Each structure stands twice: as structure tokens, then as C-alpha cells.
Amino acid sequence: MSTPTRVRAQRHRTMAEAALVELQEAILTGHLPPGAPLRLELLARTLDMSISPVREAVRQLEALGLAVHVPHRGARVSDISIEDLHDTYEVRLALETLAVRRAAEHFGDEDAAPARAHLDEHVAAHERGESREARAAHTAFHFALYAASGSDWLVRLIRPAWENCERYRSLSLESRIWHDRRREHERILAACIERRPDEAATELREHLAVTANLIARQMGPGDLFA
């Protein structure tokens, strides 16, 4: 591949990544609500990009489950439902507890330092009222723990379920006491640092189940997980 071609390919990837970030944020904040059409021309104008990187970003949204392709009509934002909520959290409960259990078996200082830094930034951003930064730091904290499992497969499998749940998680935030969430994160991290795999998995499972149940109550039917 010639140098100009490589430069163009890199620029395309960078713009597609930027488009993906902005479209994800629009979906998570409700600016692109469930069912909203993802019209490439309109999105390209809004993002001040050409259609090509926007098309790639929409494909990535489909891979993450945040968008679906409708034959002859194009892509739209995925719907939310109690069934989807249950299925997605059921997957997360299985995969993320496995990942944190493995992480806690051999958690070291090199794992604790980035996890602590992300958790501190999550708290600081929340207290500053910066919801986007707080959400990014929260994600980084959890994935720092999962990466410490040493399993690239687990991390890759967790990612789409996590991204889908981010659309739902905002429904739990107002009814969830901030200090409770903060203490849950601290307990999960402490169990990893102290290499207590069973406790780390139990704390994480409770953390996820409480969030899922709060969301379910907001949506109507009540608790999904005991």
C-alpha cells in the first residue's frame, strides 16, 4: 500500500471512530431515541463528514447491537424492551463475574493502579457534574478489571453487551443512591486487590443485579434477578 493510500485509510478510520463516538453518545443520551432512523446523508451533514466514515460508524453500531438494519429502509436505533434488558444483563452477569473472578486470582499492583485511577476520575467527574466524562471513566474502571483477567476473548465478548446496557443504565441513575454505587465499586476493587475471587464475583454480581432491577422497575414489570 502506497503512503498516500495508507494516509487516506488512516484518516478514514479516524473519522469513522470519531463518528462512532458521537453517534453512541447521541443514542445514550436519547438525542437519537429508540427507533430513530439513521439517515446517512443527514448524519454526515450533522457531523460535518463525508458519508463513507458515517456508514462505517453505523455498521459498528449494528455490530454493537445499538442499531439494526431494516431491508430497503436502512438502519435505525435499536428498540429497548424488558426482554432485551433481561437477555443483555444475563449475559453480563455470566461473563463479567467470570472475568473479575479470573482477575482477582492474580491481581497485582500493575492492575490496581489504572483501576484506581479510573475509579477516582469517575468520582471526580460525577462530582463536577460531567456526565459524559463520568460515564467514560466508569467504563474504563470496569474494563481495567476485566482486562486483568488476561482473557482477550472475555473482554471482546463483554463489550457489546456493555454498550447495549449503557442505553438502559441512565434509567437507574436517578433512583440509585450515588454513595451506594461508589461503595460497591470500592468493594469490588478491594476484593480484587486482596485476591479474593469469590468475593469479587459476588460483589460484582450484586452490583449488576441491583442496576438491572432498578431499570426493570422503571420499565414496569419489577425485579429480574434475585
Can you give a write-up of this model?
The protein has 226 residues and is mainly alpha-helical. The longest helix is centred in the N-terminal third of the chain and has 26 residues. 75% of the residues lie in helices and 4% in strands. The N and C termini lie far apart (55 Å). The chain has 2 domains: 75 residues, Winged helix-like DNA-binding domain superfamily/Winged helix DNA-binding domain (Arc Repressor Mutant, subunit A, Orthogonal Bundle), CATH 1.10.10.10; 138 residues, Four Helix Bundle (Hemerythrin (Met), subunit A). The chain is built from 9 helices and 2 strands, in the order H-H-H-E-E-H-H-H-H-H-H. Helix 4 packs across helix 7.
Could you give a quick summary of the protein structure above?
The chain has about 230 residues and is mainly alpha-helical. Helices cover about 75% and strands about 5% of the residues.
Q: According to CATH, what is the class of the largest domain?
A: Mainly Alpha
* Strand segment count: 2
What's the total helix number?
9
Q: Provide the number of structural domains.
A: 2
**Sheet with the most strands, sense and barrel status:** 2 strands, antiparallel
Estimated helix fraction: over 70%
Determine the CATH superfamily of the largest domain.
Answer: GntR ligand-binding domain-like
Give the termini separation. Answer: 55 Å
The global form is globular
Per CATH, the architecture of the largest domain is Up-down Bundle
Low-confidence region ranges: 1-9
Mean pLDDT: 90
Order of adjacent strands in the largest pleated sheet: 1-2
Beta-strand share of residues:
under 5%
Helix- and strand-based class? mainly alpha
CATH-assigned fold name of the largest domain:
Four Helix Bundle (Hemerythrin (Met), subunit A)
Rg calculated over all Cα atoms = 19 Å
- The ordered H/E elements are HHHEEHHHHHH
